[in-house]
Design brief:
Blueprint (H helix, E strand, L loop, with lengths): L13 E2 L2 E5 L1 E2 L8 E4 L13 E2 L6 E2 L3 E5 L20 E2 L5 E2 L12 E6 L4 E6 L5 E6 L10 E6 L5 E6 L4 E6 L32 E6 L14 E3 L3 E3 L4 E3 L2 E9 L2 E8 L5 E8 L17 E3 L5 E4 L5 E5 L5 E6 L6 E6 L5 E5 L6 E5 L4 E4 L8 E6 L4 E6 L8 E6 L4 E7 L7 E6 L5 E5 L3 E4 L6 E5 L13 H7 L3
Parallel strand pairs: 6-34, 7-38
Antiparallel strand pairs: 1-30, 2-26, 3-22, 4-5, 4-16, 8-9, 10-11, 11-12, 13-14, 14-15, 15-16, 17-20, 18-19, 20-21, 21-22, 23-24, 24-25, 25-26, 27-28, 28-29, 29-30, 31-32, 32-33, 33-34, 35-36, 36-37, 37-38
């Protein structure tokens, strides 16, 4: 990873102007993208046919227990019952009583980990800590895919994974009732456990795959920042409709793009060009694709240019964007949006601090006591905490910094047994547990007692984004 940074900056807030332009286009029909679809949408089963469309703080550590994410006791992978999870009861007015995955709830919760060296993603039950299934992330069926960002939708029923090496974005269903019986044999054929990956095209829980960046000119150019939008909630059906997936890539050095995909079909519906993209990184020649992505309660899509001071916001209706600069010393890496609409950013080197951006005042503030770290993934929870992953080479070493979002102060630094130096991503599940993904391990952290439990997941992991769906849920519907 590049050790790129600035000359440092003071911990004071600063205001910066923004750039506003219209850069949206509709997708061309020249074969720029390809989509393989087995459609399944919120509230309905999909078609049974596939179509080609193409402050100094004390370090807190605790003993950790270890759980093997092995044999699953779940029957979701072999269940042939085709009842969907959209059945609803009615209240006394005759309207649906939206329980479970209605507005603001999941029926189940999974952590989705990208296994970069294998070209796959793991589905881990956040309650049982069992890896229930594993899927190839694209047609390559191998490490050349280099999957990284995983993002879960507002109800937890679907995940998308972006493959940096090949340019494909793939959607997988978490629940067998959302899978599609492609061969019409009356059964859903899907991965039954962590050791069984079905050949590409035969797992009926893999719903679509769209190549947004054919033949990326570099792995840095392939799709990275990835996020779902919640869609529009329909109280009559208790469903979110018209959900979209936003993902960023590089068209060429200095030319970034954010694409909007139809969450049901994978069709690329619009592309927003982000010109003059920073050529930051280890060589200073190509830059990186939009690195992180998140959606706020107003529906705006946020993204960052890695190792730079730039923050971008896209209006999904007008396809216009605004750009802000945090100023010298900022070296953005991980990002998230909290329940109050503030954007949180962790800097890789530079001032090495955690900063927050207020869209109302348009000011960046560096959190006192958070500087001189090597920050990576970042997540906000429903209780006002912001969790930031740190690596060796910084003041906090290998661990996780906890910040109080309201007081904008460091609570403490958490360290992990067997920390290899490179924890990468962090996500908060719907029950409030914090999940940390390292290249070699996964930890589940109790946010109150700070008890840590290691979950063993095979292969090498490089996972960012909202791996559980808890981030989107908290940002859009504060719990």
């Amino acid at each position: 990873m590049a050790s790129c940074g600035g000359d440092g900056a003071s911990d004071s807030g600063s205001e910066s102007g923004f750039t506003s332009v219209s850069g949206g286009t509709s997708p061309s029909t020249d074969g720029h993208t390809g989509t393989v679809t087995a459609s399944a949408s919120e509230g309905s089963m999909g078609s049974s046919s596939a179509t080609q469309a193409s402050s100094d703080s004390n370090s807190a550590t605790s003993d950790a227990t270890v759980t093997a994410a092995s044999e699953s006791e779940s029957d979701t992978n072999t269940d042939t019952d085709t009842d969907t999870d959209t059945d609803t009861d009615t209240d006394t007015t005759g309207q649906p009583a939206c329980d479970g995955e209605g507005q603001g709830g999941f029926d189940f919760s999974y952590l989705w980990v990208a296994n970069t060296d294998q070209g796959s993603i793991s589905k881990i039950n956040t309650e049982t800590k069992i890896e229930e299934a594993r899927y190839y992330s694209d047609v390559s069926e191998g490490g050349v895919s280099s999957p990284s960002r995983t993002s879960v939708n507002i109800t937890g029923r679907f995940v998308v994974v972006s493959n940096r090496g090949t340019g494909w974005v793939t959607k997988v269903a978490a629940n067998v009732s959302d899978c599609v019986d492609l061969n019409g044999n009356g059964m859903i054929e899907t991965s039954p456990d962590k050791d069984t990956l079905l050949p590409w095209g035969s797992d009926e829980c893999v719903l679509w795959s769209t190549q947004v960046a054919p033949n990326p000119f570099s792995i840095k150019a392939g799709p990275r920042g990835t996020t779902w939008t919640p869609g529009t909630y329909n109280p009559e059906t208790c469903e979110y409709e018209d959900q979209k997936v936003w993902v960023g890539w590089l068209e060429a050095p200095g030319q970034a793009a954010m694409g909007m995909l139809n969450g049901d079909t994978g069709e690329l519906e619009a592309t927003v060009a982000l010109p003059n993209w920073p050529l930051t990184g280890d060589d200073g020649l190509t830059g990186f694709a939009p690195y992180g992505a998140a959606v706020d309660a107003d529906g705006f899509v946020w993204t960052t240019a890695a190792f730079s001071d730039q923050l971008w916001r896209i209006d999904p209706d007008t396809l216009e964007y605004k750009k802000w600069s945090a100023g010298p010393g900022a070296s953005h890496y991980g990002m998230t949006v909290d329940s109050k609409g503030k954007v949180w950013l962790g800097s890789w080197l530079g001032h090495g601090g955690v900063s927050t951006f207020d869209p109302v005042t348009e000011a960046f503030t560096v959190i006192p006591g958070s500087t001189n770290n090597v920050n990576r993934g970042i997540a906000a929870d429903a209780d006002g905490n912001v969790w930031v992953i740190t690596n060796v080479g910084g003041a906090s070493g290998c661990g996780m910094v906890q910040i109080d979002a309201e007081t904008q102060s460091v609570v403490q630094v958490h360290q992990f047994p067997q920390c290899g130096g490179y924890p990468v991503g962090v996500s908060v599940d719907i029950a409030g547990y914090v999940w940390v993904v390292d290249n070699d391990w996964v930890y589940k952290v109790n946010p109150v007692t700070y008890e840590k439990e290691q979950v063993l997941v095979a292969n090498t992991h490089y996972t960012y984004s909202d791996m559980t769906g808890g981030g989107l849920l908290n940002a859009v519907i504060p719990q």
